Amino acid sequence: MTDETFVDYYELLQISPNAELETINRVYKMLAARYHPDHPETGDVDRFLLLNQAYEILGNSERRQDYNMAYAVHHAQPIDLFDTKDFAMGVDGEANRRMGILCLLYNRRRSNTDHPGLSILEFETMMSFPREHLMFTMWYLKDRDFIRQDDKSDYVITGVGVDYVETHLPDHKVLYKLLKAPESTRTSAMEG
Predict the structure, then answer these.
(1) DSSP structure class, residue 185
(2) Which domain covers residue 128, as residue numbers?
(3) Do the beta carbons of residue 147 and residue 138 sit within 8 Å?
(4) To 10 degrees, the CA torsion angle through 130, 135, 138, 144?
(5) Total structural domains in the chain?
(6) Got the DSSP string for 105-166?
(7) CA distances to 2, 21, 107, 144 from 147, in Å
(8) Which of 22, 97, 100, 172 has a 20 to 30 A CA-CA distance from 132?
(9) What number of other Cβ atoms are within 10 A of residue 178's Cβ?
(10) How many other C-beta atoms are found inside a 10 Å radius of the C-beta of residue 87?
């Protein structure tokens, strides 16, 4: 599975990578019923097929173990989006970094409610920015009450931050892909 075709099945199912099989089964059944092609209002063939693929891998201990290795490698790499000119220095780059951090925390909160925070080191890795370039951004987001630090000093999104993301995401088209990635279907990923 190449980085371009990697699908985050945990994010797709909105579950923690530490989720037990019982949780995987329960969430899969609920989402599969919702997106089944026969469902008149919410049926989505591509989404349904992707959910089935996620369940086939995460529901099998050997396949899940192999997937978890690819998952770890994928998450140890910077996200390509943050290497674009949209995140270069300057006011526009700063505004995009702020929304990027909020989107990463939003996704983390949705998919891992037991551990919804990210450390500054994780942000450095994911965004490929040195800590020094992130500290002003983190200060601003904390000062606006969009994020806070938990008891482990990880950053977590607040309710105010969630509302901000949901309200302002349409204005940040470059980041829409980042936040919507778990919802998107990649045919190339389903073929692999």
Answers:
(1) -
(2) 80-181
(3) yes
(4) -150
(5) 2
(6) HHHHHHH-TTS--B-HHHHHHHHT--HHHHHHHHHHHHHTTSEEE-TTS-EEE-HHHHHHHH
(7) 33, 31, 13, 8
(8) 172
(9) 19
(10) 22
Q: Indicate whether 192 belongs to any domain.
A: no
User: Using 50, 70 and 90 to split pLDDT, how confident is the model at 190?
Assistant: very low
- Annotate 95-125 with b (16+ C-beta within 10 A) or e (fewer): bbbbbbbbbbbbbbbbbbeebbbbeeeebbb
Relative orientation angle of helices 131-143 and 120-127, to the nearest 10 degrees: 120
> How do residues 1-43 score in pLDDT, each as one tens digit?
445 578 889 888 888 888 899 999 999 999 999 999 998 899 8
My answer on whether 106 and 15 are in the same domain is no
pTM over 0.85? The answer is no
